[in-house]
């Protein structure tokens, strides 16, 4: 378990209660859904709204100051400015959001830069096995390189045709459609390729290391 002594401006009560839920296995249904037959994974309920979840800090980065560093075990590390994002081929994908706190939201149309395109530019070295996302609010989360390389993963600038708002992680957030939404880092500022896995903010606090909603991998 992580030591929360120096979380600074994040909301310690919220973090504490989520850690307790993880310990107690809150919301675990042990039920099943079949992705071939069902659209809603076990224990989820459909919402029409779009809840905002974060650590209580919503960083606002002017586009002229905004940078995205892509580094670690890659052949061609990069620091992208906003103009570099705009210069990449556009990618779109429609997917359902499943948040571990049990809400799901269908048919989110994301637009941005595909992970596969990014990978083709930076070229991970053979030792690279995992990816760590670092965000402007100090949040981190980790995924396997294989999961990042799935065809539906992207760095999103737009949601349903509109630029992603600050509260939802704009100007740029990661979208990992196959995992619970905590893997989709808002306000991403660094994508780091590493050999050894490194648990992120919630993964250190009792969440599952992967987070497949169909297997109800809420807590680890
Ligand atoms: N940078 C950052 N990304 C984050 C979080 C966060 O606190 N900071 N929270 C995660 C969690 S737990 C969820 S459910 C989703 C919420 O995204 P939303 O506010 O757009 O619904 O963002 C994820 N990405
Ligand atoms: Mo979440």
Automatic annotation (TrEMBL):
Pfam families: Oxidored_molyb (PF00174). Residues 59-202 form the Oxidoreductase molybdopterin-binding domain. SUPFAM superfamilies: Oxidoreductase molybdopterin-binding domain. This is Sulfite oxidase-like oxidoreductase. It comes from Inquilinus limosus.
